[in-house]
């Protein structure tokens, strides 16, 4: 049986997450649909998380992106039970994002309210038949990229997610920027590129967000991806808060 490394203690993760400037993160999400979170985890923890990719027993599936037309590269979905640090990031980020998600739903007229505790939301997912974990590790080599997409896995969709860069730009890889596009009604698509450092994260909208217009609030559609890697090796931890069917 594969032993799981201790990585960071969940209480350490909780303190780091709780200390973030959440009002500023919320303002950026409201304005742009995404928000950079600097130094969410340490470089040492990045290396430990990246090393988990070699431990196949931790994962439920591996996806070859080229085979499925998703781009080029690969990723693995973690199996339950999640490594403690991944579970801690998921459970401690969620309570700060849930009020933003609820505010967005109210503005868009979506009659869904998210509970304050992530375990309660997972219960809702599982009752709806979505019980497969969705946190994942992604890796890209030179020439790889991730097509613009939305991470929708069933009826239950939490409208925000988080990606954490585990590699160091300029040293481990070049290129490979996080990219998000936003399509507003009767307007050209708008692109947003978020430059991250090792241990930085980006919180972003999964598929829709509200925008205030001259005639009231309307919904805009968003997709995200990763631009082509020019050289090196890039790894990312993805934290998705709804489980999959």
Question: What does this entry look like structurally?
Answer:
The protein is of the alpha+beta class. The chain has 6 helices and 14 strands. Strands 1, 2, 4, 5, 7, 8, 11 and 14 form an 8-stranded antiparallel sheet that branches. Strands 3, 6, 9, 10, 12 and 13 form a 6-stranded antiparallel sheet that branches. A hairpin with a 2-residue loop joins strand 12 and strand 13. The protein is globular. The N terminus is likely disordered.
Short description:
Helices cover 28% and strands 33% of the residues. It is an alpha+beta fold and 245 residues long.
Topology, number of strands = 14
Mean pLDDT: 94
Question: Which class do the helix and strand fractions yield?
Answer: alpha+beta
Major sheet attributes: 8 strands, antiparallel
Outline type: globular
Distance between the termini: 27 Å
Secondary-structure element order, N to C: HHEHEHEEHHEEEEEEEEEE
Number of helices: 6
Break the fold down into its secondary structure elements and pairings:
Elements: H1 10-18, H2 22-32, E1 34-37, H3 43-51, E2 59-64, H4 65-68, E3 71-72, E4 74-78, H5 84-108, H6 118-127, E5 136-141, E6 145-149, E7 160-165, E8 173-175, E9 178-183, E10 190-194, E11 201-205, E12 208-213, E13 216-226, E14 229-240
